[in-house]
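Quick look at the format.
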Amino acid sequence: MLVDSHCHLDFSELANRLDQVLESMVNAKVGAALCIGVSLERLPSVMALAEAHENLFASVGVHPEQHECAEPDVETLVRLAGHHRVLGIGETGLDYYWHKDRPEWQRDRFRVHIRAAKASRKPLIVHTREAADDTLRIMREENAAAVGGVMHCFTETQAVADEALSQGFYISFSGIVTFKNAKQIKAVARSIPLERILVETDAPFLTPVPYRGKVNEPAYVRHVAEEIALLRGMDVADVEKATTENFCRLFNIAIN
């Protein structure tokens, strides 16, 4: 059984055909998925999924790309994270691709999420894009290592992976690792300890080969696991077992 550690099933591309998406998960032996919060406004739809389906879970956070939305504070995030279906805090972090002026509000928001994660004792789900130095610096300054978490959809260098690992974080690979030109990401996937790897889709985005160009969904996380197995010269069953155990260990949950 595999687990999709990061997806957005509340987005219309998937929510409008949820029964089919869930059936495809069963057929692909994807036993669970973590539905990621990206704003406080969207959170009710994420929570509804987690409450209605035993194999779906939720996270609470405000994505760094979101700027016209309710701003979270530590107390609100901690309160929302107290729900028994919430496994982590995020998606949070820094994104300088869309915000080239590197706004201070993004960095302040990231600190709020780290503090909420430590207060709620739930792992962080970190997004970083063209902002690795500041992301790691803030993680150090706020002692994110006290709670740990995952660097989602990893696209950075080996040095960034090593620093994140040293802070107790896991590295999650998405469909990007299957792309032919993703040489740097493939190299990281080969090198880091298997016991610190997660797999994800980030559905409906970043669809892996051989479905690239179509809407992504949790069932396709199997292609991510297969690529990692190929890169590491392993049986995919061993990657499947390890990444599922890693997910359960990080988020302190048992999945049948």
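Next, a different chain entirely:
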Amino acid sequence: MAEEPVLQDQEDDIEALKKALADEKEKAESYLSSWQRERADFSNYKKRIEQEKKESLTWTNAELIKSLLPVVDDMERAFSMVDPGFKDTSWVEGFRQIQRKLQELLRDHGCTEIECVGQPFDPNLHEAVAYDEGDEGIVIAEHRKGYKMNDRVLRAPQVSVGKGKNEQTAKLENNENENQA
């Protein structure tokens, strides 16, 4: 009879050990899943930091490029003012080559001109500086070139936007269209 209480005690000990083992397994699984989540969070953090570094560098470059745009404008104005007798001289061609290299450098960094003449006016993309007679809501002239970098506007083009045609012009066009028909 003395064996029954000993057997009972051993079974109780075994049950207690099984329960303790199950509790420890549960804790280990909890620790493992927490560790895995933290590892994923850290990995995502590293990726986000790398992306932010790239974006920061890109937009630092964008600021530099933005500061060069007036130089590009000045070069274009200078070439438009060159006397026809000097257009084919070697020094003018040398400056044209410099201008081409500068434009190529801008393109290599993702900076492109914004095409606007003939396009519908978009206040998110264009800066209206004048309204003139022409097709309503359409950009009819560009006063200063605009540029974008990776689909973000660096500098909006300054444009004239059509405000429609006055009555006299509309009547003249209608008369011309009727005469042609």
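Residues 74 and 80 are 10 Å apart (CA to CA).

See the schema section for token definitions.
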